[in-house]
Amino acid sequence: MFARKQLKYEAVDLPDRVSMPDEEMVRAAAEFHDRMKQRHSVREFSDRSVPKEVIEDCIRAAGTAPSGANHQPWHFVAISNPGIKSRIRAAAEEEERRFYDGAAGDEWLRALEPIGTGPEKPHLEIAPWLIVVFAQRYGQFDDGTRFKNYYVPESVGIATGFLLAALHHAGLVSLTHTPNPMRFLNDLLERPDSEKPVMILATGHPAPDAKVPAVAKIKKPLDEILTLAE
Questions:
Q1: Taking Cα atoms as reference points, which of 164, 89, 72 lies closest to residue 127?
Q2: Using only C-alpha atoms, what is the Rg of the chain?
Q3: Cα 116 from Cα 132, distance rounded (Å)
Q4: Residues 6 or more apart from 117 whose CB is under 8 A from it?
Q5: Nearest Cα to 204, choosing from 43, 64, 84, 76?
Q6: In what residue span(s) does the Nitroreductase domain sit (predicted)?
Q7: CB-CB contact of 85 with 177 (8 Å)
Q8: Using an 8 Å Cβ cutoff, are 142 and 3 in contact?
Q9: pTM value > 0.85
Q10: What is the pLDDT of residues 13-65, one digit of tens each?
Q11: Closest CA to 180 of 93, 75, 76, 74
Q12: Which of 90, 133, 141, 191 fits a 20 to 30 Å CA distance from 31?
């Protein structure tokens, strides 16, 4: 929690400095790409447990992400409780049935066909952990008064990317899930009105027979996602 007396600029020496020769940087970048290329969105999970410490450290990594004015406008709720996971699944599937029954529109449903998704979400119960990502519209000083958060969607998106990478680095698979609307998560998880749920991440180990849609492995080539202005 921020304290008003902390709101002043003070410069400190860069605490962690990494210096690599060019060839080592090239190798490190290529190795990271190769590692992240092995990340897959998985819908079939094993019920194998995952230590709480793994999830905590992955969320610690997410918490190091940059954010607007360093306000860190995020909160993560990590859930292993079977009863809560079951209630989340029931509520999410209720929203998903409306989505697939026509609320999404024909174009969106056609776009999802190659992914093979539907209203049933058993992974929300089977995956050992669900991580609900909340975006904080505003924060509070230590005296209880509010302050505005800035660039909230961008900041939370970056932190979520860190979290996905950390989970993959720890040997886990994950699946992003965004039922709409998600307000039921505030009540279920007792989060304040200042927070907006933006995503459910199911994470754990893949089932022995886990499959992924072939189309999901089609990625745009570099020349379609990069423009160099040298």
A1: 89
A2: 20
A3: 23
A4: 43
A5: 43
A6: 37-205
A7: no
A8: yes
A9: yes
A10: 999 999 999 999 999 999 999 999 999 999 999 999 999 999 999 999 999 99
A11: 93
A12: 133
Q: What was the pLDDT predicted at 87?
A: 97
What are the phi and psi torsion angles at 71 (to 5°)?
A: -80, -15
* CA angle 165–45–199, rounded 5-degree value: 50
Written as six digits, the tokens of 179 are 């039922």
Residue 63 C-alpha from the chain's centroid:
12
Give the per-residue pLDDT at 140: 85
Of residues 70, 185, 81, the one with CA closest to residue 129: 81
Fold of the domain spanning 43-208: NADH Oxidase (3.40.109)
State how far the alpha carbon of 162 is from the alpha carbons of 22, 59, 121, 175, in Å.
Answer: 25, 9, 25, 14
Residue bearing tokens 């007396």: 5
| 229 phi, psi to nearest 5 deg | -115, 85
Strands 129-136 and 195-204: antiparallel
Burial pattern 119-140, b for ≥16 Cβ within 10 A else e, equals eebebbbbbbbbbbbbbbeebe
Closest Cα partner for 135 from 178, 219, 73? 73
